[in-house]
Amino acid sequence: MLEVKDLRVTYTSKRGPGVTAVRDVSFDIPDNTFVGLVGESGCGKSTLGFALSRLLDPARNEIHGSVVLDGQDLYKLSDEALRKLRWSKLSLVLQGGMNAFNPVLKIKNQFMDVMREHSDMTKAQMLDRISELLKAVNLNPSVMEAYPHELSGGMKQRAAIALALVLQPRLVILDEPTTALDVVVQRSIVTMLSALQRQLGFSVLFVSHDLGLVLEFADRVMVMYAGQIVEDKPADMLIETAEHPYTKALLKCYADPGAETVTLSGIPGSPPDLGAAIQGCPFAPRCANAFADCRSIPPAPVDRGAGRVACHLYRAEEVARS
Ligand code: SF4
Fold first, then answer.
1. Is the distance from the beta carbon of residue 48 to the nearest atom of ligand 1 less than 6 Å?
2. Is the CB of 287 under 6 A from ligand 1?
3. Does the beta carbon of 82 lie inside 6 Å of ligand 1?
4. C-alpha 9: how far from chain center
5. pLDDT for residue 100 is more than 70
6. CA neighbor of 51 nearest in space, from 232, 205, 214
7. What is the DSSP secondary-structure string of 111-140?
8. Is 245 a pocket residue for ligand 1 (Cβ < 6 Å)?
């Protein structure tokens, strides 16, 4: 349903070479799949989400590669064709999405704005749809008569998710949608989202720095580091057999709340400067397994069963096998 090929995004700057936040990323997302995208802050996750939605200004950024949704390359569509596709095929919920509601309009009017612009629904149909969606996200339909300031943060974020589903998109991109909320509300929203995704059959790209949360709900997890996807696997496989040294290190930073004792370890060092050229593997300065090739040759993704890993350790295994 979504095919991304060699996507590269550079934020250009008059003062230097710019910052390449997404580096030749390729992946696909089938129908009816919950995909998690995880990584440390600044690794390019949000830039990837924006690039997939074609929300980055082409005058200020260099964007290469293709993003094909349902057979249409988003970067070849006219502005009008893209406008038609938004909401109906692709929608986006941001971390601060709940704060994007217009404070002087009732919730229902904000839903109706979208439906009026992008569909031919009558007013009665629109009100039915709003009521149905508010119930689906566990809100009372009377919320449609409220102004945003009358709702709690969790209620507003539920309403923002309902708004993203208003025209039954094929793909919903959620960029850290629960980070600003407390952990109890966060969990109830992701549980609700996961149930809705299965019930309605859309696909989700859930961007988060919380690997534990993503592993619990996602069908598949992509791990991002320094603008690249370094490991991409079914979630259960990633828990059992994480292979990339960065993924393994991330898993060690996650405390299982069910475990009797927990030993946590951080990842030494810092991610590389994405404004500078990167030689070899970007994780090499922090990797305990690094060897000579890692510092000079960029690792290409290697197929590993149902997943892919970009690490020289597995390239060496492939060569030995062939
Ligand atoms: Fe570590 Fe080398 Fe693999 Fe990079 S390519 S993760 S430095 S072993």
1. no
2. yes
3. no
4. 16
5. yes
6. 205
7. HHHHHHHH----HHHHHHHHHHHHHHTT--
8. yes
Number of C-beta neighbours around residue 50 at 10 A: 20
pLDDT score, position 97? 64
- Rounded to the nearest angstrom, the distance between the alpha carbon of 316 and the centre of ligand 1 is 11
The Å distance, Cα 132 to ligand 1 centre, comes to 49
Quick check: 209 pLDDT over 90?
A: no
How much is the pTM? 0.90
Which band of pLDDT confidence, cut at 50, 70 and 90, is reported for residue 28? very high
- Taking the C-alpha atoms of residue 23 and residue 6, their distance in angstroms, rounded to an integer, is 8
Nearest CA, atom 7, ligand 1: 284
| Paired tokens of 252 | 């060690």
Single-letter code of the amino acid located at 34: F
pLDDT in tens, 292-322: 999 999 999 999 988 999 999 987 566 555 5
> 294 CB under 6 A from ligand 1?
yes
Residues 173, 86: contact at Cβ < 8 Å?
A: no
Other residues' Cβ atoms within 10 Å of the Cβ of residue 174: 26
- Specify whether the CB–CB gap between 18 and 227 falls below 8 A: no
313 lines ligand 1 (CB under 6 A): yes
Digit-coded pLDDT (tens) for 155-193: 888 899 889 888 889 999 999 887 767 777 778 888 888
Q: Is the dihedral of CA 180, 185, 188, 189 positive or negative?
A: negative
Angle of helix 153-164 relative to helix 107-118, nearest 10 degrees? 10
